Amino acid sequence: MTSTSETSGSGRAVGADLERADARAKVAGQAPYAFEHPVENPCYAHAVLSSVPRGRITSVDTGAACREDGVITVLTYENAERLASTDDAELAILQEPEVAFHGQIVGAVIAETPEAARHAASLVRITYATEPHESELKPDENELYRPDSANGGADTDSMLGDLDAAMEAAAADPEAVALDETYVTAMTHCNPMEPHATIAVWQGDELTLYDSSQSVHGHRDTLAEVFGIDRGRVHMICPYVGGGFGSKGEPHAHAVLAALTARAVPGRPVKLALTRQQMFTLVGYRTPTYQRVRLAAGADGRLTGIGMDAVEQTSRIKEFAEQSANPTRTMYAAEHRRTTHRLAHLDVPVPSWMRAPGECPGMFGPEVAMDELAERLGMDPVELRIRNDAPVAPETGKPFSSRNLVACLNEGARRFGWHGRDPRPGVRRDGRWLVGTGVASSAYPVNRVPGSVAAVQYVGEGRYRVDIGAADLGTGAWTVLAQIAADRLDVPLDAVELRIGDTALPKATVAGGSSGTAMWGSAIVAAARTFRERHGNDPSPGDHAQAETPGNPHAERFAMHAFGAQFVEVRVDADTGEIRVPRLLGVFAAGRIINPRTARSQLVGGMTMGLSMALHEETVTDPRYGLLVNHDLANYHVTANADVRSIEAHWIDEDDPYVNPLGIKGIGEIGITGTAAAVVNAVRHATGVRVREVPVMLDKVLNGMS
Amino acid sequence: METEIKLRVDGQEREVTVDTRTTVLDALRERLGITSPKKGCDHGQCGSCTVLLDGRRATTCLALAVAHDGAEIVTAEGLGTDGELHPVQQAFVDHDALQCGYCTPGQVCSAVGVLREAAQGWPSVVTEVGAEGDIAPARLDHEEIAERMSGNLCRCGAYVNIVPAVAAAAEAEGAGR
Ligand code: FES
Ligand code: FES
Q1: Residues 6 or more apart from B147 whose CB is under 8 A from it?
Q2: Pick among A17, A22, A24, A26 to test the B interface (most B CBs inside 10 A)
Q3: Which of A309, A469, B2, B81 qualifies as a FRET site for A536, CA 20 to 30 Å off?
Q4: For the residues A384-397, what does the mean pLDDT come to?
Q5: Do the chains contact at A607 and B85, CB–CB below 8 Å?
Q6: A689-699 confidence digits (pLDDT tens)
Q7: Is A198:A258 a contact under the CB 8 Å cutoff?
């Protein structure tokens, strides 16, 4: 059997517990983010957003705004230039009087100072003829449709065997269990700490952008198309990203607005930052989901049937079909299976990627259902999961390149002290607190995104420059890519000068789908090999080579996924329902870990966001006006420091020779999967209350307890 | 309306013309080009813009520049001395108490403020109050640090590393006193 695994260079850097390369710059605030690049004589743009959810602009009055001191001009659909491509309706701003959602860009003020731009934006008067709108996901009332496919090219539906028959058979058998419940996850927003911001400047027909982006090349290509210019004429620079979590993965309308406004002041840079409030309607979000989960199991706990029907929303102007039924296709063995995705077209902002799209919400309902099933069977929930581990990919029959879910469950149980757990709900009390524990599985696919190129150049005196237009969102790319390059060139780490985050560098694919380190790293491996083949170990200054991420010969033969297990202890105040999470422990099997320090931070970060999803995060829509009510960080709650006590991430050493030459599976997203289910399961164990929706707030627990 | 003010930022006297609507944060970032304080929300909700303002931690997005003529400001960039990181910053590096780094300068300034406040015996909401209403001197354990640092959001979820970093800096400082 051949494999793509190679000797890992000198092996000095990969796997080493090294300090984050950009840590020193960041603690001193010296790493420049998009809005911070020094530019000569900038002006400022501030966006004007629609105040109705659906309708048509009937009049625009920019008089007062234009009279403000320092205002250069005001753009609306009436005077903005026509874009070359309006195929993507999210990006086709200021082209037509139609309004498709509350909070859509309908204008912009350009002024000499941010204060003037912002104030003048509030003076722009726009009147609308409104039309009836529908802005709330209600599966029983919305008209649902079947998308052609789901995000990432996932199949819309899948059917094997006859789930209905399996459910009926289980219901008829007194020993068996048929479980049919609906679970709900809230609308949530990525909310990276760095707001989406762009500096744009046109010099003739050349556009330079400093943008906060998970993909400089991807965003450049899209913007070039929107403006109808050659992509070589668009230059995007982004060395540091203040968090993205998916919201900076696709270009959003503000980047188009920045470039549009910069057209009005040729040669002059325009700085445009979205406010935190504006981010809620303009940079994507996670759709709410309704998940009907069905499980049929015999008395031995073995699943005979498993089903997941996901209902979600998308915007009327652009489809995003979150692939929430996806993980059910991989997690557990069962003969009879069914998964579906149905969407409602609503008059709402355009949903998009949020950390582990599909996989994160899709690991909620089924993992709570497994807990309910364990309870009804009188079986330990760890044991139930182990018993249903899938020996091959359940839908395709392909072998897994590696699958260590069971090892994660066992190791997690051992570390957490799960064994001997009293399964009875609502019986452990410590003073005011009801105490419980819960578990859930985690999973994330190994995504392959072709097309990254890396270049290696010898600059002399033992130093090598490694170039790739990758992005570091806090993920550690600055650190781990240099580690990979050092080993593959067989040089010390400090001999590598890495450059990323610039379209002037070789093309890199998006920092998304937990694929960055694997894809970019594989390109670096290939470039280093080509370099040595061509120039040997004693190169001359200027010698260089470049190479692309190679295809994977094993891609069709194996199912490739990372797995994990998360264990949670919760304490619920018996009188107030306050929920605290003193312990959260995850064990993951995610291939080779390049840098344990940055990896642990990333996994813990995912789990922290999962905790946030479990307890806090919910964007609330007012269906009367089609607006998002709690659109700031005071009202949209994310986990704060005092919400967190102990969060531990561990991993199983996993040597997967098939995923890529580095054996990397990706760790950016798996940490957020399963967390919310584990918390909800622990809340049940603590209080006896079974909650089937997140976030779990006090009222949901208290209502059940009294 | 514009007006001229003086600020002392990271040890340097600066004169700057500000709009009366300009916040201290925008005066620093947009008018003086000092970008170590970050803008995360502009509404006092996230802590990214935290600096030491006349010795105390403050969210600069909520402070109007004209109201702080003559103020002494220390940002994360000015915390260290002679090219060395401040012990709190070094502890953040050592504990990998950051990922994207956007909240980090604010966290670091906030942590320096926390150490000062605790040294001065300021209580927090989780500080034990005795029967007589007496307040025990604040010992910076996990609960105290997490509480006192909760005005600084970190979306990357670095909290489990931030708390030990601040604890290590507190311990080092205590040892040095
Ligand atoms: S920017 Fe000042 S608190 Fe968020
Ligand atoms: S390090 Fe990214 S928000 Fe804190």
Answers
A1: A641, A642, B124, B125, B126
A2: A26
A3: A469
A4: 98
A5: no
A6: 999 999 999 99
A7: yes
From the list A194, A602, A604, the residue facing B102 with the nearest CB is A194
Residue B106 Cβ contacting ligand 1 at under 6 Å? no
B112/A contact by beta carbon, under 8 A: no
Distance from the alpha carbon of residue B105 to the mean position of ligand 2, in angstroms = 10
Q: Are residues A432 and A455 in the same domain?
A: no
Task: Locate the chain B residue with the closest alpha carbon to A672.
Answer: B157
Among the three residues A518, A548, A578, which one is the final residue of a domain in this structure? A548
Q: What pLDDT does residue A9 have? A: 45
C-beta of residue A452 within 8 angstroms of C-beta of residue A522: yes
A693 and A669, same domain (yes or no): yes
Residues A472 and A403 in one domain: no
Contact A192 B154 (CB under 8 A): no
Question: Alpha-carbon torsion B39, B42, B44, B46, what sign?
Answer: negative
- pLDDT per residue over A200-242, tens digit each? 999 999 999 999 999 999 999 999 999 999 999 999 999 999 9
C-beta neighbour count of A521 within 10 angstroms: 29
User: What residue ranges of chain B are covered by domains with CATH 3.10.20.30?
Assistant: 2-78
CATH of domain B87-176: 1.10.150.120
Ligand 2 atom nearest B100 alpha carbon? 2
The total domain count for chain A is 2
Q: Is A247 on the interface with B (CB under 8 A)?
A: no
Say yes or no: A568 and A675 in one domain: yes
Q: Please give the angle made by the CA atoms of A17, A23 and A26, to the nearest 5 degrees.
A: 165
Same-domain pairing of A587 and A691: yes
Inter-CA distances, A660 with A129, A390, A523, A633, Å: 55, 23, 11, 40
B161 touches chain A (CB under 8 A): yes
Contacts of B84 in chain A (CB under 8 A): none
- The answer to the question of residue A105 being in a domain is no
Interface membership of A19 toward B (CB under 8 Å): yes
Considering the four listed CATH numbers 1.10.3470.10, 1.10.10.410, 3.90.1530.10, 3.10.20.30, the one that applies to the domain covering B2-78 is 3.10.20.30
Numbers of helices and strands, H then E, in chain A: 16, 28
Residues of A in contact with B155 (CB under 8 A): 190-193, 243, 245, 609, 638
Which tokens go with B32? Answer: 């003086």
**What is the residue whose two structure tokens read 């959602």?**
A101
Supply the pLDDT for residue A323. Answer: 98
The answer to whether A666 touches A562, Cβ cutoff 8 Å, is yes
Spatial strand order of the sheet with A544-548 comes to A496-499, A463-467, A453-460, A544-548
Which residue in chain B is spatially nearest to A606 when comparing CA positions? B157
Q: In chain B, which segments carry CATH 1.10.150.120?
A: 87-176
Judge if A402 and A519 occupy the same domain. no
A433 forms beta bridges with A430, A573
Task: Give the tens place of pLDDT for each residue, A75-131.
Answer: 999 999 999 999 999 999 999 999 999 999 999 999 999 999 999 999 999 999 999
- What is the atom index within ligand 2 of the atom nearest the CA of B157? 4
pLDDT per residue as tens, chain B (177 positions): 899 999 999 999 999 999 999 999 999 999 999 999 999 999 999 999 999 999 999 999 999 999 999 999 999 999 999 889 999 999 999 999 999 999 999 999 999 999 999 999 899 999 988 777 777 766 899 999 999 999 999 999 999 999 999 999 999 987 644
**Domain finish residue from A513, A548, A583:** A548
Name the phi and psi angles at A683, rounded to 5. Answer: -65, -40
- A672 and A577 assigned to the same domain: yes
ipTM: 0.97
A640 inside domain:
yes
Q: What is the pTM of this model?
A: 0.97
A568 with A666, same domain?
yes
- Residue ranges making up the domain that contains A481: 23-31+449-548
